[in-house]
Amino acid sequence: MKNPKIKLIYDKLYSAFGPQHWWPGDSPFEVIVGAILTQNTAWKNVSVSIQNLKNNKVLTPRELYDLPLEKLGSLIRSSGYYNLKAKRLNNFLNILFSGYEGDLGKMLDQEGKTLRNVLLDISGIGPETADSIMLYAGGKLSFVVDAYTRRIFSRHKLIEEGLPYDELKHFIEKNLPGNLKLYNEYHALIVRTGKEFCSNKDPKCSLCPIREI
DNA sequence: CTCCGGACTG
DNA sequence: CAGTCGGGAG
Q1: Which of the four pLDDT bands, split at 50, 70 and 90, describes residue A125?
Q2: pTM of the entire structure?
Q3: What is the nearest nucleotide to A151, using C1' and CA?
Q4: Cα end-to-end span (Å), chain A
């Protein structure tokens, strides 16, 4: 028994905003680095860090792994939590080189559930980052939940506010067709809606594309 | 001053 | 559960 509102909301948002072209990035590795750097951080600040890494020619697993933590931290400073995130990037690279010979393809080609568990075992990669990597770097059918998702769906009385991550993820997935492009756009559209209309403080409900639902 | 495309530790 | 990490933009 599907709840038609989940797909309906997507249709409304897509009609209002169109394709969002996520994830911005030239390679799966760039997507992964961005996913870790953007944790609780505005994307604009992350893009500066990514550009720094590119300018220094270290945006590859090998080069980044060989970079001292202190140097890495200075390059990603604009993303905030830079000491913490330098370690988190290194934690990821440790697994990539110890388990997959530094070969991203080898890591990402694993079956979905296996890959998700591998990622979640890395300190610094939680459920949202893992799902972002799965979907946007690995092309896996894994819906990404974030704070906006919870806020929008609970404000529309579709879920309880405190619904745990995995339950919210499953609720959405079971009410949507299993389509990669749909998962990709939906999360991006939710982020856009959250920023423009469903803010915590001063929501613009009267102007929101899904105000009728 | 608050908020951001979270996650870990105590 | 709360505290911590943190620069950048509004």
Answers
A1: very high
A2: 0.97
A3: B5
A4: 19
